[in-house]
Amino acid sequence: MKITDVKTFIVGNPWKNWVFVKVCTDEGITGVGEATGGHDAKPTEAQVHELSRFYMGMDPRHPTRIYERMYKGLFFRASHAAGAIETACWDILAKSLGVPLWQLFGGKMHDRLRVYANAWYKGPRDLGFFREKAAEVVEMGYTALKFDPFGSAHRTLSREEEKLSVSLVAAVREGVGDDVDILVEGHDRFSVSTAISIGKQIAEYRPMWFETPVRSTDIPATVAVAKAIDVPVAVGEMYDQIGQFAELLEHRVVDIVQAEPLALGIGTTRQACALAYAYGAVVALHQAQSPLATAICAHLHAAAPNFLIQECFDDFLEPWARDCVPGVPVPKDGYVEVPDAPGLGVDLDEAEMAKHPYHPDAFIRLFEDGWESRRR
After folding, report:
1. Which backbone phi and psi does 121 adopt, to 5 degrees?
2. pLDDT tens profile 166-207
3. Where are the beta strands (DSSP E) in the chain?
4. How far apart (Å, rounded) are the C-alpha atoms in residues 139 and 343?
5. Contact 117, 142 (CB under 8 A)
6. Which residues form the catalytic set?
7. H/E segment holding residue 281
8. For the segment 275-287, what is each residue's pLDDT rounded down to a tens digit?
9. 30: nearest Cα among 103, 80, 87
């Protein structure tokens, strides 16, 4: 079997442009992957094709070999483009064997996966709004939800902003009650002292974690915060080297690992999960892209003995989002069922994707304004 072609698709929406790939073979089996990152859709799409010298004509049933060729060709850097190609090759390998992808990872540890909702808080930074929207998420069946209460803050918080941010955490806790997990997102933005101050104040509302309170790649800063607060710290989505996970875990104060499969690829993400397991840590893979990424994470989580919870935006995206990716698992009562169809168990609907071309105004105005204006 040989790779004969790779197709790319950019699907535009008000949040960010998704980048999908479809790897074609001379035996008619195709595989899909996702290369969505931030606001670099067109450069990422171009890199998918530029990397073709490392995968075109290769047998896709050797995804690790292909990924290593691309990784070395990128001078030992992970990339969303390489990760998407590797994922599509894993999809082809599993389809060629007639088994779901998780079967290649040692089989299922979990038949269904607990998920937490994200992107539900699009609107004003108002206590009543956050309280009511959080309660609506629980009514949908979710037992956990994540949110960023910090608005445009960066590095530090004014006294007024700090009070409002903590009050929003309190409002969400009030809205969901004591039996629902709340997860607080920091988006890598605070200084160590500010993060510690926030972490101490929100502890009384019992968040499941405080995510990326400082720059993720600043491991000493992350460790300093984790040691100083009683709220668990979660981190890992910005890591692009397996050694970063080892360096973090060696301190034994952070035990929630959020590797990003779209950046690392399937193989390196599995290594990160295994490394976390060796250190007694749990995994909650980062997933802030399309429903296709939901399926990718589901297969990885299904086989991970140290799985904790899975991120899910899907119920809060555009109403047509799932139509682009037929077969994607859909949350029900706070869980998703692990797909059993061969490969990833999903496909790309090219006709549906064509209805939503590249969106030039898609932009996450992180630290500039909130979700309300972000979606204009």
Report:
1. -105, 30
2. 999 999 999 999 999 999 999 999 999 999 999 999 999 999
3. 3-11, 18-25, 31-34, 112-117, 144-147, 181-185, 209-211, 233-235, 256-257, 282-283, 310-312, 335-337
4. 33
5. yes
6. 187, 286
7. none
8. 999 999 999 999 9
9. 87
Q: Cα(47)–Cα(76) distance, rounded to whole angstroms?
A: 15
Residue identified by tokens 């949908």 is 140
- Domains by residue range for the chain, with CATH: 3-99 (3.30.390.10), 103-342 (3.20.20.120)
Pairing outcome for strands 112-117 and 335-337: antiparallel
Burial class (CB in 10 A: 0-12, 13-18, 19+), 337: middle
State the number of CA atoms in the 13 A half-sphere of 50 facing the CB: 10
Q: Name the token pair of 76.
A: 């030992």
Q: Is 266 in contact with 297 (CB distance < 8 Å)? A: no
Q: With the CA atoms of 221, 224, 228 and 230 taken in that order, what torsion angle do they form, in degrees rounded to the nearest 10?
A: 70
**Paired sense of beta strands 31-34 and 18-25, if any:** antiparallel
Distance separating alpha carbons of residues 224 and 220, to the nearest angstrom: 6
Phi, then psi, of 363 in degrees rounded to 5: -165, 130
The helix or strand, by DSSP H or E, that contains position 48, with its residue range, turns out to be helix 41-50
pTM above 0.90, yes or no: yes
The CA–CA distances, whole Å, from 130 to 12, 64, 162, 175 equal 27, 44, 16, 8
